[in-house]
Amino acid sequence: MRNRDRTRLLSALNSVSWVIGAALFAVLLALTALLNRELAAREARAIQAYLDTRVVQVQAELMDAADDHASIHRRMAARIGYGDDFDPGFWRADARTILNDFAYYDRLAVLDRDMNVLAYEGPAGVGLAPGDPFPIGPAARRRLEEQPFEEGAMALEPMPLAGRPHGLLFMTSVPAGDEPGWLAVVVELPAAIAAELEDYEFGDIALRSQMPGARFRLPADVPAAAFADGDTRPLEITLDDGQSRLRFELALRPEARAAMASGLPETVLGLGSVLALLTSVAALLAMASARQARFLAQANRSLNDEIHDRELAERELAFLLTHDTLTDLPNRAGMMQALDRAVARRAPGRSLAVLYLDLDQFKDINETLGHHVGDELLRQLPVRLGSALDPADRIGRLGGDEFLVLAERRSRERITELARALLAAFDRPFAIDEHALFVTVSIGVTTLDADQSPAELVQNADAALFRAKHLGRNQFAWFDPELVAEVQRRLTMSRAIREALDSERFTVVYQPIVDLETLEMRGVEALLRWPQDDGPGIPPREFIRVAEETGLVHRLGQYAVERALDDLQDWWRQFGSGPWLAVNISGAQFREPDFVDALAAQLQARNVPPERIHLEITEDVLIENLAQNRAVLDRLDRLGMSLVVDDFGVGYSSMAYIKNFPVSAIKIDQGFIRDLESDPDDQAITRTICDLSRMLRLDTVAEGIEHPAQLTMLRRFGCPYGQGFLFLEPSGPDVIRDVLAGRRSWVKRAEPATAS
Ligand code: C2E
Ligand code: MG
Ligand code: MG
Asked: 501, 527, 544: which to mutate for ligand 1, most atoms within 8 A of CB?
């Protein structure tokens, strides 16, 4: 997962967990609220129940008190009734005792039947003298009159008192024979209730009177708000007369209510909220840590993947470094490592062989059929070679068409068998596209016998390969320490060739090509010479071979052609006529892609007509790559140059081939001429070549004519041209000029009989 995606996912997860956290919080909070409400309701119900009980208790208490006072009044009224005479003095003393005993008794009076004052005891100055009507309201008066008088009727009426607002009037009948009357007692109600309830635990409740004209609260300092929340109970006290009622409202006092409240619902609410919050936060944290754990696991996984990828890449890199991409075989580095290991643990009694393989015609295949065919051939090779190898043998590609095989065998014979098997693996053609390619291979073989280094082993195998190539390819050659010297010589020589080219030390000599009938010079063959300061020159075959092997032959060939063309120009210019020029072209030169163009350019630059040029190529070069050579030869032919097959007879000697090429002459190899006088075979061959050439309308040149007898015989065979020491050794341009000028002739030497 890429980092950007990861971040996006994380933030999405983040918001999801916030939502979950918030939802959890809401649910927990709702549950807490429910619990709180339930608890609060229970608490409220408990308070209601308590209130109910308190109402009953307080009611009972006040009723008892009211009953007590009623009987006090009745007893006093009875005392007034003793005897027919009412004794005010006696009553007043009685009244004062009561007023003293009960602080909340305000005044007392004895009234006659019509409720006029007979006697009065109480605060002075209220204007109640005997004979005055007692201030009683009409409603109360009516209620009193309706009751049977004898039963000690009681009436009750609020009565404002000076400085004591809530007075209550109690009327008790005085059954005094013929002169009944009333005992009027005025009580200060709040003080009375307070006093009555004093003994009892009044502490936690409050009362509020509900009577019109007598509104007060008990205790006086209870706030009105105590009655405001609806948690109140009506409390009614019915007095003896069954009609007078004291009506109150009872409430719990705020401090009592506060004391009763357990605080549990609030605690639950508070704790619950906190708990909900904590739980949500914990859930959030848990989710975050789970996410973090997932993230870490994911990161771990991607780290693992990365390590794994890197390991793969490293392994791949190591493979690439030591392997060839085309064939998947180990490359040079891989093979050198394998060789290192093999050298290190060579088994006693076994020979470690290194076989260096090189395809013989790979360059041609690439050039004529294209590189994809060449590549495919290389790809098929491991399988083909593998068929000749043991499983423990190693094979690798060193580059190009070069392969290396490492094998351990018990003896030199076994290694030879392996080399033969590898050669035989190429007996069958390779099928590539529509082609059936016959390919051969050359193999250089060496073994580890002293303590050569792996690099030396490969070098030795390479030297042996060179020998196998040199011996004619499609074979194997064993390494020979001599080879190293040869390789060394080759190296030294190629360096010397380069230097000699740079300092123009090569020279060109010319050997006349003579008309065998007239002995006139018709052409010259240009031959390269490399003079040495100290001793005889190096034979051209030798340095040309090295130049071919080291890629210098192209330069060398151009150099020779240039020199020869210059000389040719001189002769023609000087004499108005001259010989044709035969130039030797090696296989390597011939295969150069720009060979024809470069040669044509050289001719053009000097204005030399192409007809004056004969190109000598050997048979094996001619047939080496039929298709490609055919095209090159056709181009040269079209340009007007003649083609000559050099050294004819040493190789395939197939007239059938030659017939198919635009060839104008063949040169009979000097090997047939050397013993021509004495060897009937050579005679037969030479005669046949001459006959066939004539039939094919080809010219023939006999090489290496040294004796007049050879000339005689060749004339008999009808060979038109020849060259050799008999006429002139290869010589410098001045000598040719002398010949052209008629200052030098070989006629006497060539035809001694005629001449003498
Ligand atoms: P080749 O083309 O067959 O040249 C003829 C060789 O025979 C020359 O050897 C010549 O000196 C030698 N020869 C001529 N007449 C006689 C004779 O009567 N008796 C004997 N024994 N030998 C005779 P040379 O000059 O040593 O050249 C050897 C080969 O080197 C040539 O064989 C040719 O293949 C090659 N070569 C020489 N110069 C060049 C060159 O400029 N370019 C290329 N590519 N090859 C060259
Ligand atoms: Mg030649
Ligand atoms: Mg020759």
From this structure: 527
